[in-house]
Amino acid sequence: MKTDIHPAAVIEDGAVIGDGCKIGPFCYVGPNVKLGKNNLLHSNVVIDGNTEMGDGNEVYSFACLGKVSQDLKFKAGMVAYTKIGDGNTFREYVTVNAASEGATTTIGNNCLFLSYSHIAHDCILGNNIIISTDTKMAGHVEVGNHAIINAKTGIVQFVRIGDFAFIGGLNKVAKDILPYCIADGIPSEIRAINKIGLERNGYDADAIKRIYSAYKAIIRSGKPLDEAAAELQERFPDDEDVQKMITFAQESKLGLARPRAK
To answer: Looking at 36, 139, 162, 197, which residue is catalytic?
Structure first.
């Protein structure tokens, strides 16, 4: 497919534009940007910095990707990177910042970023993620595959959100969200497993029961994590989903978003 660049777009010398890209009027593509094949940039899009984008992405008007970090430690002359995979959609006014010096803000494949969402420096996002309108991530946030974060949610720096997690709207997420779980509230608390989300993604009843058992042991039993993990290791030594939940909990530095005692 032929590349189509509107004459009112600004493509700096040095930018690499892949075959089949369509770039609309008043877009700006910086000199260190590399676009893969078949990307669609609607009007008034800015892609700048040391940004690499894969194939088949769609970027709507007034989105701004790859500009320098808003971290106050970042100084002029520092070099940082943004890497975006394939098949992502960035709606109007989405912002994605480059990382800290020498590091990379990373977005995987097939993610959907709704309008006014913000991905800060050094965030690492997986695949098939949905970030809803006006959700804001601080620096160094990690989001696992198939996670869904609903509208107007704020996520504190260094928080980790596991695979298939589902977070409600208007949340304040200050601690880690276990994989396969639903979280909600101010502050956000882990409340249940994401049963419907798991069913929609092909998990059978037995797998969901094992995930629920791990959720109960880690979040609801009141047992110390080491004790709960040991019991789960004995019961489900070969279950990848349970092992993922155990490892995620054990590696948490901020702690899990456990329900507050009543």
So the answer is: 139
- pLDDT, one tens digit per residue, over 79-122 is 999 999 999 999 999 999 999 999 999 999 999 999 999 999 99
CA atoms of 33 and 48, how far apart (whole Å) = 6
Q: Give CA–CA dist 159/90, Å, rounded.
A: 22
Residue type, 91: R
Distance in angstroms (rounded) separating the CA atoms of residues 117 and 251: 27
Tokens read off for 149: 């974060």
Q: Give pTM, 2 decimals.
A: 0.97
Q: What are the residues whose beta carbons fall under 8 Å from the beta carbon of 18, sequence distance 6 or more? A: 3, 35, 36, 37, 38, 39, 55
Name the DSSP class of 256. B
Mark whether 139 is an active-site residue: yes
- Gap between the Cα atoms of 36 and 238, Å rounded: 39
Domains of the chain, start order = 4-140 (2.160.10.10), 198-250 (1.20.1180)
Which is catalytic among the residues 85, 108, 118, 121? Answer: 121
